[in-house]
Amino acid sequence: MERYARQIILPEIGSAGQEKLAAARVAVVGAGGLGCPVLQYLAAAGVGELTIIDGDRVQKSNLQRQILFGASSLGQNKARAAAARLKDLNGEIQYRAVDCFLLPGMAIETLRGHDLVIDATDNFATRYLINDVCVGLGLPFIIGALDRFQGQMALCNHNGGPSYRCLFPDRPTAETAPSCGEQGILGSVAGLVGLAQANEALKYLLGLNCSADGRLWFFDALTLQARTISSKADEKQLALARENFKRLPDVDYSLECDGSLEWTAGMFLQREKETVLVDVRESATTPPPFPCRHIPGSRLRAEMLPAESDVLLVCAHGLSSLRLAVLLREQGLERVYSLKGGWTKLSGEAASGGYVAANK
């Protein structure tokens, strides 16, 4: 117990509290800017089993805020790289690395059996998936989100309190809620919000008062102002979550959130063999780094693409392809996506991951 001596002497924790932490199982979805500090502090505190879920790979632009990783981690799967680093921090607990993204077909079995789920993701489709699975399984979960110099956090689905859908019933679009990659994020803000999630998780596991229970906490790092907004459970939103849970895996969360129309480069590299890749640039000034079909966006129609396969549209930087994906979805093509960051992002990801472009 020497490792945990400084927290055991707290009267609110003691040896009994440390035993609670050692018996706890926590799933952390996302090992990025939020997930890294969450994982570090839960591991250091002695949480008995941590499941780390992430299908992305470490790239250089991550290192500014994803402080579990270093130069030696570049190109590695984030879940596996995080588990390896955490074992050095605390080898007395168990780590389970799930090296793929949380998807409707495996979310229930992946999250089942945990005491708590931490949502450290950066896209709304996965957040609503986590919400529905946790409501269906009766699991509390802690959300975190980032917006430039601001962040938010809440404990959801606990003691009859609100779920994520109750807090955010209106699903945002990619245009109204751009990602950190599009609008930027100060690395320390991700750390602050991740620490808040970890702190709330430890309080919950120890049976202490959870101040974020039913309240959405906002923090502004520029002004150092914090505020909370209280909320109540919305039975309509809870019923929707339960219905979706029963229908899994046959729920398409991409139809709820335009942001989920986007695939990251890591997602494509995982599914390359099963994906139809389409270059929608009007003119290919540089050759694409992967074999693909070239159909200029101005001439692209839904009937030109297979309905039974995942179709990934790619332009230079991911903006034109996203607009086209939205239009094609409206025309009834349900399995069309846009590559986030475009060819620029995919080329860099492939290089950092050790991939060799097939046409070079």
Features:
360 residues, alpha/beta, Rossmann fold, Oxidized Rhodanese, domain 1, 2 domains, eight-stranded mixed β-sheet, five-stranded parallel β-sheet, 13 helices, 35% helix, disordered C terminus, transferase
Question: What report would you give on this structure?
Answer:
This protein has 360 residues and is an alpha/beta fold. It has 13 helices and 13 strands. It has two domains: 2-247, NAD(P)-binding Rossmann-like Domain (Rossmann fold, 3-Layer(aba) Sandwich), CATH 3.40.50.720; 264-352, Rhodanese-like domain (Oxidized Rhodanese, domain 1), CATH 3.40.250. The protein has helices at residues 5-8, 14-23, 35-45, 78-89, 107-111, 124-137, 164-167, 180-183, 187-206, 235-247, 265-271, 319-330, 342-352, and strands spanning 25-29, 49-53, 94-98, 116-119, 141-147, 150-156, 215-220, 225-230, 262-263, 275-279, 293-294, 310-314, 336-339. The strands form two sheets. An eight-stranded mixed β-sheet has the order 3-2-1-4-5-6-7-8, sandwiched between helices. A five-stranded parallel β-sheet has the order 9-13-12-10-11, with helices on both faces. Helix 3 (35-45) packs parallel to helix 9 (187-206) and helix 6 (124-137) packs across helix 10. The longest helix is centred in the middle third of the chain and has 20 residues, at 187-206. The radius of gyration is 21 Å and the shape is globular.
